[in-house]
Every structure is written in C-alpha cells, then in structure tokens.
Design brief:
three-stranded mixed beta sheet; 11 helices; 15 strands; globular
C-alpha cells in the first residue's frame, strides 16, 4: 500500500465504483454513499459503476434518471417507500405474466416427472441412454416465472428504458449477473452483453429491467432467467441457451469487471483504474444457533462460503494496492467495526442499529431509509477524511477550480484526520 507524507498531494486518477448486493437495504445504504461522493466531488469523476442485485437498482436509477442528483434521490426514496413486492403483485393481477408462469411451471413439472419415469424404465440400459439429453435437461424454456414478473415490474418502474438509452453523461454501467451453465460472470452494458465463455451479444432491444432482474434473481427465491441469445466469439456466431441468476452468486461486491489484472483478451474491457470505491452493504456475521438438521446446516455452510468469498475480495483490494496495481481504494462497509474508524462523526449511526435490516425488496419505512442512507454518508465522509484527505481532484484542462483558477482541488471531506502518532497516512 502506497505511503505518503501528510503534506504530499496525490492525484485522484481514474476511478471506478462498485455497489454490492443486499436488496432494499443495499439501495438505501448506497444512496447515502452516492450522496457523500457527490458532495465530495468524486462521483462526477467516476467512469464506471459495476453493480449487483440491490446495487444494480440504485446504479441503474442513477445512470438513467433524467433529472439532477436531488431528483434522483427523491425518486429512489419513493421507490424504497413503495417497495417492489406490491408492484409485483399488481403485475400478476393486471397482466398475463402470472398465468404464463403457472402454465410453464406446470409443464416443467410434468416434463421432469416423465423424464424421471423414463430413467427408471431405462435403468437396466443406462449405458445406452447417454445421448438422450432430455433425460437430464428439459427442452422447455422457462420464459415466464416469478423472475419475469419482477422483470415486468422493473420495466414499468423504469419506463421500458433500454440499456442503449442510459445517460451518456453518467458513468458506464456494468450490471453483473451469474450464468449458471458456464459458472461465470455475465455482464450487461449499454453497448453489449458479455460472458467470457460465450463471447459478446448485442444489447439491442435489451431493457434496463432485463439486466436488473437477472442481477437480483436470488436463487433461493427466484428462478433463473432462461433464454436464448446469439453470441459472437473469435469471429464465429452461435445460438446459446443461458441461465442467469443473482450476480451475488458469482461476486456480491461487483468487483469482478474492475480488477486491474484481468486478461482483456477474453474478458470484457472496461478500462483499468487507479482507484476503486467498493460500497458493501453486507453485515458482520454473528455466531448462530447450532445447525443440527440438514436445512440449517446447509444454510450455515452457504453463509460461510458466501462470507469467505466476499472477505477474499476485500483482501484482494489490499493486496493489489500493496503491489502497486491500485493507487488506493475506499471500502464503505455497512458492517464496519465502528471502533476502528479514526474520524467518526459524533452522531454516527452505529452498525448494530442498522446492519441487520432485511435484504428483501419489501417497502421500507422512511425512518429506516434515513438511517441506512445516513450511515452510508457518514462512513464515506469518515473514510475520505481518514484515507484520502490529501488526494486532489483534477479538473478538465482550462476548467476553473473553486478559486477560479484552472487546476485541481482537494476532496471536499468535512474533516481531516491526522494519522496515529508515528505513522504515515495511507491510501486505502
């Protein structure tokens, strides 16, 4: 990790922002983080936003909403107060999507039951049935499900906006989903869709709602999005059937497309960045009850793997900064140990008060929106003051700074913290 004297000035450089998953809790927390970054003058310098699940909702709103930041904030709060479950129920009763989902689900059950009977009948001849793909996977495409109901809901809330219609004056948006067949990340952007195993597909006609619903399709509650697409790879095109689920299955922090050591010959190139801001809306794991039966045991195992993968991603930020591949990073974390903050505000919303809020998409009371967003603001401000107090934002050539002269200005952190005695300040 780079160490500099407190009097030295560091340039901000190219910045990317990652917004983690976490349902409505993540939307509210990230809203506060975005507000603090806006006030500090950093948000306008962000070139790419990579997002997962709930983070994808607020990121898509920011990159598509036609108004200013205050208008975007009001719209996000309105959606949080309304929630997404009741609008989804309205979609069920006012469209044919619910009926289609029920019919296709019933057809799949019958199809798989017949396949089960066929496997029993052909068991003595199992060696000769290897080419009967129907026995292993249904040919029925699940084109309607609870997830497509959610997709229609998002489509209405976003006004059927296409990915290609995202605002060009906002950061490039990368919505992360997980492709289950290839066990790989799947990226939605305004220009193309990409999975390194399949190549790239056109984003023409793809709505913002398609990306968000895929990124937020939590597998324990929502079926994977099942569809066919034409991909191009190495000059060849091929029709592929894809199964998309919650991007958090692959990378809940949304950092996958931003790593500086990625191989752009096979992976999607969104550029290399000097600094990464990773907003994590997760929480610190607590010691749970003994897992005596299989369901709680599997749930505990899932949480262990999930937490470990996120912690490894956080450690990778430190490692990349240590070896000089990143100039620095910022990690506003909802489950932050408040005792480690060197610059906490006097009225800090404590972690214990908000970190356990549910991660579903139910309606959120205004007071909870305020608490979660306020903690996001406070953590970003405290971390900026602690770690980036001597980082300067470069203005475009010829653009005046705050005193009317071209050049750069310091990040507008509300306070500056001196590092502990005997230590240098560090970019992290």
């Amino acid at each position: 990790m780079d160490e500099v004297a407190a009097t030295d000035a560091l340039r901000l450089g190219r910045v990317a922002l990652a917004l983690s998953g976490g349902g409505s809790r993540a939307i509210a927390f990230h809203l506060g983080c975005l507000r603090a970054l806006k006030d500090a003058g950093i948000l306008d310098k962000v070139e790419v936003i990579s997002s997962v699940s709930g983070g994808s909702v607020v990121a898509a709103l920011y990159c598509s909403h036609p108004g200013d930041f205050a208008s975007f904030e009001r719209r996000t709060r309105e959606l949080l107060e309304k929630g997404f479950l009741v609008p989804a129920l309205v979609t069920v009763v006012t469209t044919t999507e619910g009926i289609r989902a029920l019919v296709i689900f019933s057809a799949l059950l019958i199809d798989r039951f017949l396949a089960f009977l066929a496997r029993l009948a052909t068991f003595p001849f199992r060696a000769g049935t290897g080419r009967w793909r129907w026995l292993k996977a249904s040919a029925i495409v699940r084109s309607a499900s609870r997830t497509t109901i959610l997709r229609r809901t998002f489509s209405r809330l976003f006004g059927q906006k296409l990915l290609s219609e995202l605002r060009p004056d906002r950061p490039q948006l990368v919505v992360v989903a997980c492709e289950l067949r290839a066990k790989a990340a799947f990226y939605f952007t305004a220009k193309r869709l990409h999975c390194w195993r399949y190549g790239s597909a056109s984003s023409d006609g793809v709505e913002v709602a398609d990306a968000i619903s895929a990124s937020a399709a939590y597998p324990l509650m929502l079926p994977a999005i099942d569809r066919q697409m034409v991909f191009e790879k190495n000059g060849r095109t091929r029709l592929r059937r894809i199964s998309l689920t919650d991007g958090g299955v692959y990378d809940n922090l949304g950092l996958a497309p931003l790593w500086p050591d990625r191989d752009f010959s096979i992976s999607m190139d969104v550029g290399r960045f000097d600094r990464i801001i990773a907003c994590r809306a997760g929480y610190a794991l607590e010691v749970s009850d003994p897992a005596s039966l299989i369901l709680p045991r599997m749930a505990a195992a899932f949480e262990s793997i999930f937490a470990r993968s996120q912690n490894q991603a956080m450690k990778r930020l430190y490692d990349l900064t240590e070896v000089g591949k990143l100039k620095g990073f910022l990690l506003p974390y909802l489950g932050q140990n408040d005792g480690t903050l060197r610059c906490p505000p006097a009225d800090l919303i404590p972690c214990e008060e908000v970190a356990g809020y549910p991660t579903n998409f139910s309606a959120m009371p205004p007071e909870w929106i305020d608490r979660l967003a306020r903690r996001g603001v406070q953590l970003v401000e405290a971390l900026l003051a602690e770690n980036w107090a001597n980082v300067q934002i470069e203005e475009p050539t010829g653009a005046p700074d705050e005193v009317g002269q071209p050049g750069s200005h310091d990040i507008a952190a509300p306070t500056r913290c001196a590092p502990p005695s005997g230590h240098s300040s560090r970019t992290s």
